[in-house]
Amino acid sequence: MKKNPLVLLVDDIPQNIQVLGAILKNQGYSFALTTSGAETYQLLHKTIPDLILLDVMLPDEDGFSICKNLKADERTKDIPVIFLTAKNDTSDKVNGFKVGGVDYITKPFEELEVIERVKNHLQAKLDREQIKAYNKELEVIVEQRTNELLKKERESILAQFIQGVVHNIRGPISSALAANDLIHAMHADLNDKINEGIHGQQLINQLAEVWQILELNSEVLRKMASNLESMLRKSRTDQMQENAICDLNEIIQQELDFLDVDLKFKNQVEKHFHLSVEKLPVFVLQGDIAQIFENLIKNAMDAMYKTPNPMVRIESGSDGSFHWFSVEDNGPGIPEEIIDKIFDSFFTTKPLKSDPNALEQIPIGTGIGLKFCKKTIESYKGKIVVEKGRSIGAKFTVFLPAFDFAH
Fold first, then answer.
1. Is the distance from CB of 351 to CB of 362 less than 8 angstroms?
2. Percent of the chain with pLDDT strictly greater than 90
């Protein structure tokens, strides 16, 4: 307990003031005195006591009304209030608890009872304050750890993307090199063939086919390079970016282009797109929404890793004040008993690390993906909703405030 806690005594009976004042003083407490509701409010504007001893009967306002007002005020709602009441007045005791009182002391006052009740509630208040302080410290630690894990997850996503580009770029490069070798081989005796008049048209047709191969693979390489450049640009720190008016559909489409380098998503997953034909303007940091969409797609892919015929449905639309997009899969779904926990920090149904001895590697998780999504969306005054009561699959819908060009 802190040194010299301040107790506010609210009573207009001189004898009560004398008795309680002496008890508090002997216990080393500081105490202040008011004799009416008006004086009490006036003092509380300047000073916040650690505990209030409040008489039920006062000249201008009863103690129940005063306590109710104090509990409705953010500044004073956490001050414990002990009512001073007549010994056999049960209704006063009940009413005191109803309006937020923590205890009562009956008249005539018993010194030991007053001492113990005051001491216990001062200690309880101190314990609550310490728990609140510990919770704040824990929130800071969790926030820092979450940001560290989120940074690693973003770096991992970028690394996976680059790895996919490198893997998929080998095919076009090999085709282009083979076509180039063929051109060189054909060029060596091209003049002889033409001079001899042999297979001239056939050579021209072959050259056209080779050039078409080169052109097609060059376009594939160009698209991969463009996607990689955009991905790298998007991965820069958010401090270098500002909120801007973005079309939700464009963000989704760009992310789907990035996902083309994932061969499983591209070739093995049945996809259904139902995007709004209207633009869906939102005022956001584009990278945030892109990251959220990526997380939802990644979760869907992870959930369907054993699904025979995986399917993803992506939709977008507007309900007027909010624009939205949804990601739906046909995986095993989310059990009802955990569906309310999925947005909690570090909650995950996936293993936290892979088993190097396992014959088949299953998806792993950190438990921060959905927490990041929820926190980021709420920072834009939006919300993320998971559909409940499904027998199969999962569906997440993200709502973001529609940008109002009139304002």
1. yes
2. 43
